Amino acid sequence: MPAVTETIDTVAAVTSGTYKYGFETEIEMEFAPKGLNEDIVRFISAKKNEPDWLLAWRLKAFAMWKTMEEPHWPAVSYPQIDYQDAYYYAAPVKKQGPRSLDEVDPELLRTYEKLGIPLKEQAILAGVEGAGESPAEGRMPIAVDAVFDSVSVATSYKERLGKEGIIFCSISEAVQEHPELVRQYLGSVVPQGDNFFAALNSAVFTDGSFVYIPKGVRCPMELSTYFRINAKSTGQFERTLIIADEGATVSYLEGCTAPMRDENQLHAAVVELVALDDASIKYSTVQNWYPGDENGVGGIYNFVTKRGACRGKRSKISWTQVETGSSITWKYPSCILQGDDSVGEFYSVAITNNRQQADTGTKMIHIGRNTRSTIVSKGISAGKGQNTYRGLVKILPKASGARNFTQCDSLLIGDQCGAHTVPYIENRCISAKVEHEATTSRIAEDQLFYCRQRGLSEEDAVGLIVNGFCREVLKELPMEFAVEAQKLLQISLEGSVG
Amino acid sequence: MNAITEHNALTEPGAAGFLHRFEGLRARLPGRDLPWLQSLREAGAASFREQGFPTRRVEAWKYTDLGPLKEAGFGEALTPVDSAIPLPRAAAPRRVVFIDGRFSPELSDPDAPVRSLARHLDEVEGLLGSVARHEGVPLAALNTALFEDGALIDLAPGEDGGVVELLSVVRADRPVALHPRHLVRLAPGAKLVLIERAWGHGESRYLHSPVLEFQVAADAHVTHARLQQEGPAGIHLSTVFATVAEKGTYDSFLLHAGARLARAEAYVTLAGAFSAAHLNGAQLVGDGQHADCTTFLDHAAPDCPSRQTVKTVLAGRSRGVFQGKIHVHQIAQRTDGYQMNQALLLSEQAEIDSKPQLEIYADDVKCSHGATVGALDETQLFYLRSRGIPEAEARSMLIEAFLLDAVETVENEVARAALSEAVSGWWQRMAA
C-alpha cells in the first residue's frame, strides 16, 4: 500500500524533525460547534440521517460516559484532556455523488496524491464510478476505505467485492443500507459502557469501515482503511465493524496519519470483530499517527478499544500491529475465545522514540474448550520513550484443554528510556496450560561487534538486529507490508544510536 | 482488670474499629513516654485513617479481598499469657517464642541474639520505621500505630548471629488481632539465619499482621526463612521491608502453609552496588484457603543480581496469587534479574492469578521472567506409571518434587530442613 511505502519516508522525516504527512489540507470543512453535549450527539446522528434506534443507542452511551471516570492506570502521562474544547464532527463538504474526477474537491485529491495513493485509486477513492476496477500494474488489488476526519470519503473496489456478496463500505452507509446487520452486531463485542473511551466513541462516532463477508466466502483481496485526521482541534472517533460469517476469511489492514501540529489530538476508535463458525479474520495495523516532535510537543493520543469475538467453533482472529506513531498509544486488541477450538493471536511491534509513550498489549479470554492463544510482543524503546506491555490471559473453568503461549521481549536503546512488562495470568481451569516468558535487554555488544566487523555501519547494524528481534511479528504481516514495515522500523530508530 | 476486659471485647468491624482501638489504647501502648514514638504512632494512625483497608479496586489488591477482615470485629490480646499451651517442635537449636505477639522470656533461649522490642524501645529511635513506609502500605501504617511488641535483633559488625528460630504463637481460642513489629539490623559483615514461624493454635478466627524491618549493611548476609502455619481460620497479613547495602545479601524464602487468608508482602531495596536478593517461595493452598505472595524488588544500585522462584500448588476450592514486581532504576546498570513463577493445579475448583512485572529504566540490563500454569505433566506421570509406580504414588512424587525443587534454593541446612519438613507434612496431609 502506497501509504505504507510513504510511511517509511515519513518516519525518516520525523526523526530529522519533519513529518512528511505533517501537511494540512485546506479544504472546505463543515464543523459541528465545539464541545460535547446531548445536542452534539443528536446533531451527528441527524447529520448522518440515522434511524431512531441508533440515536437512542448513542444517547445511552453518552449518558454512561458522563458517569464514567477517565482511566489513569496506564503507564502514560499526559495533561488533562478538555473534552469540551474539541470538535466532534468535521467533514469535507461533499457535493452530491461525484461522477467524475472534476467534480471531486481538488484539494481532497491533492491530499491523497500527497499521501501516495496513486491517481487511479484516487479516482476510485473519490467515488468516481467506472474509474477502473482493475488493479494497478501487477500489484495485488487492495480495496481501500478512506476516512477523512469524521467521515468516510470513498471506498474502492466495491463493485467487484459486491459480486462475491461482500459488503465493504463506510459504517454510515451500512447503517442506511444494511441496518439489520449493524443493529445485530454493533456494540455486541464492545458494549457502550465498556470503558470511558469506548463510551465516548459510542456517543459521537462519526464514521469508519464496515465489512461483512458472507458464508463460505474467502475475500479475494486485502481490505484496507486509511485514516486521516486533518482538521485542527478535532477528535477522530471511528468505528469499525467486521463480521466474518461461517467459513468466511478476510484480511484487513489499517493505516493512519495526521498533520503535524503542536496541539494534541484525540483518536478514540472502537474496532469490533465477529468471527462465526470456521471463520477467520486477520487484522493488521500499521499505525503512524503524528508522534509529536522530539520534545514531546503535539502528537496524537491514540486511545483505542479493539476487540474480537471468536463466537463460532474453530474460528480464528489474528491481530498484528506495528505501532510507530502517536505521542501516546493506549490499546489492547483482544480476543474473546468463546467457540470451542477457536484461536486468538496477537503479534505486536511497538516502537517508542523521543518522548513517545506506549501502553499496549492484549487480552485473551478463554471461554470455550480447547481454545488456543499466542501472544508475541516486541517492544523497542529509544530516546526518552516509555514502552509498556500489559496483557491478560484469562482461562475460565469450562475452557478445558485451553492453551496459551506468551512471549514478550523488550529492547532498550539508550539509557533514558523505559521498558515495562505487566502480564496478568488468571487461570481457573485445571487442564489449561499457560506459559509466559519475557526478557528485557539492550542490543548485545557481541552482535553489534559481529556486524560492525563485517563492515556494517552502526545504524545499519542496529537496524539489522532490530529487524531480527521483530522477525516473528513482521512475518505475520501481509507480504508486501512486511517488507515496508522492516524498513520502517530501521528508519524509526534513526538518530537513536551512537 | 476492668480496662483489660473492656479492650478485649470485639471492636466494630473494619478500619474504624482499629482506629477506635488505637484511640483507646494509645495511652497504654509500649513507649508512651517516648515523644518520637508517639508521633510515629500518630503518623501511622493518620496514614491508616487516610488509606483504610485496601479494596480490590487498588491494583496491588486486585486478587485478594480483605472482606473477611473488614466484616469481622477483633479484640485486643491483652489477657495474661498462659504459657502451658503446646508448642511445635523447635526448627532450630535456638528459639525465641512470642505468645500472642508478646515476648516470652521463659520459653526463649537466653543465648539467642533476640530481645523484646517493647522493653528496648529507647534504643531504636531512628531505626524503627526507617525501612518501613506507610504510603501505599496501610497495613504497615496500622502496625506502626498499634504494635505491642516484637523482636529486636541488632548484630554488631562481623557478628555471626547463627541460626535462630523466631516463633510467634497465636492462641486462636478467641478473635484477636495482633500487630507485632520485628526489627533486624545487621552491621557491616554480620550474618544471621532467621527462621520466622507463625503458628496458630486453635480454631477461632484472628488476625496476625506482623511487620518486619531489615537493615542489612555492607557485606552483611541474612537468610530469612518464613513458615506461615497459622490456624485454619486465621488471617495472616505480613509485610517485610528490607534495604541492602553494598555487597550485602537478603536471602528469603516464604512458605505459606496455613491460614484461611494469607498475604505476605515484601518490599526489598537493593541500595548498594553488588548487593543481592533472593525472594523465593512456595505456597501450599488447600481447600478453602487463599494465599498471596506479593513482592516489590527495587534495583536502586548498579551491578546487583536478584533471583526469584515462587511455586504454588493448589488443591480443593482454593486460590493462589503471585505478584512480583521488579523495578530497575536508571542508575541500576548491569542489573541481572530473574523471576520464575510456576503453579500446579490439582483441582477443578482452584484458581491461580499470577502477575510478574518488570519496570525497567536502565538499558544495560538482563531481566527475564517466566510463568507457567498447568496441571501435572501427563508424560512425566506416564513415565513413572510405565515403571510400575501406582498412579497415586506417582502423582505424590511429582508434586513433592515440584515443591522441594523450590525449597532447594535455601542454602542453610537447618532452614532448608525446617521448610522441607513443613512441605512434606502438608502434602502428606493433603494426600491422605
TrEMBL record, chain A:
NCBIfam families: PRK11814.1 (NF008773), sufB (TIGR01980). This is Fe-S cluster assembly protein SufB. Belongs to the iron-sulfur cluster assembly SufBD family. The gene is sufB. InterPro entries: Fe-S_cluster_assembly_SufBD, SUF_FeS_clus_asmbl_SufB, SUF_FeS_clus_asmbl_SufBD_core, SUF_FeS_clus_asmbl_SufBD_sf, SufBD_N. It holds the Pfam family SUFBD_core. Residues 227-469 form the SUF system FeS cluster assembly SufBD core domain. It comes from Teichococcus vastitatis. It comes from the Bacteria. Residues 155-219 form the SUF system FeS cluster assembly SufBD N-terminal domain.
TrEMBL record, chain B:
InterPro entries: Fe-S_cluster_assembly_SufBD (IPR055346), SUF_FeS_clus_asmbl_SufBD_core (IPR000825), SUF_FeS_clus_asmbl_SufBD_sf (IPR037284), SUF_FeS_clus_asmbl_SufD (IPR011542), SufBD_N (IPR045595). Transmembrane segments: none annotated. Residues 22-82 form the SUF system FeS cluster assembly SufBD N-terminal domain. Residues 176-402 form the SUF system FeS cluster assembly SufBD core domain. It comes from the Bacteria. Belongs to the iron-sulfur cluster assembly SufBD family. PANTHER family: PROTEIN ABCI7, CHLOROPLASTIC. NCBIfam families: sufD. This is Fe-S cluster assembly protein SufD. It comes from Teichococcus vastitatis. The gene is sufD.
